[in-house]
TrEMBL record:
It comes from the Bacteria. This is HD domain-containing protein. GO terms for molecular function: guanosine-3',5'-bis(diphosphate) 3'-diphosphatase activity. Residues 29-125 form the HD domain.
Length: 185
């Protein structure tokens, strides 16, 4: 059953990302946050985590459509906190700086933020593995960082998630399997 609060979050995510598509595809962007929420549902029953999963890219990619203040009013400080914990620091201009900052933050991030991160990166890996099967090496031109740096990134996130959540946490084995497939791409 979808609660009115979760239904509201789905509507907001769809609205905020309405003009976006997944990188170098024709896939509506909302498919990503919705998938992240579904993956998070295999890890927890916490509705705030589901909502944060739906809204995890809003402050980073669509803050002009839905502000932190609006999120706070609609869903409260816990959801905002989780979303902010998984939002990359846009004040850092270089990809490597943003990646390093994110990884440093993951070391102390809340359990809830780790779940959203796990779900987000799992869906990204799922998408990249599928896209690689469809377009081959042309995939790497879509990203600011090439295959080697992408592999470093997802491996580094894996190191933190596996250590902090534990290898038996739901979804961690799926991430490891996808990372292995990605490394072979």
């Amino acid at each position: 059953m979808i609660s009115p609060r979760l239904a509201h979050a789905i509507s907001i995510a769809a609205y905020a990302h309405r003009n976006q598509i997944r990188k170098a595809t024709s896939i509506p962007y909302i498919c990503h946050p919705y998938s992240v929420m579904v993956i998070a549902q295999s890890c927890t029953c916490d509705e705030d985590v589901f909502i944060a999963a739906l809204l995890h890219d809003v402050l980073e990619d669509a803050a002009e459509e839905y502000s932190e203040h609006e999120m706070l009013n609609d869903f409260g400080p816990r959801v905002v906190s989780i979303v902010k914990e998984v939002t990359k620091d846009s004040s850092l201009s270089m990809w490597q700086e943003r990646a390093d900052s994110y990884l440093t933050h993951l070391e102390t991030a809340s359990h809830e933020a780790l779940i959203v991160c796990l779900a987000d990166k799992t869906h990204n890996l799922m998408s990249m593995v599928a896209d690689y099967e469809a377009v081959g090496d042309a995939l790497w031109a879509r990203f600011n960082a090439g295959k080697d740096r992408q592999l470093w990134w997802y491996s580094s996130v894996w190191d933190v998630l596996e250590r902090r959540l534990g290898k038996d946490f739901p979804g961690v084995a799926d991430y490891a399997r996808l990372l292995s497939m990605f490394a072979k791409a």
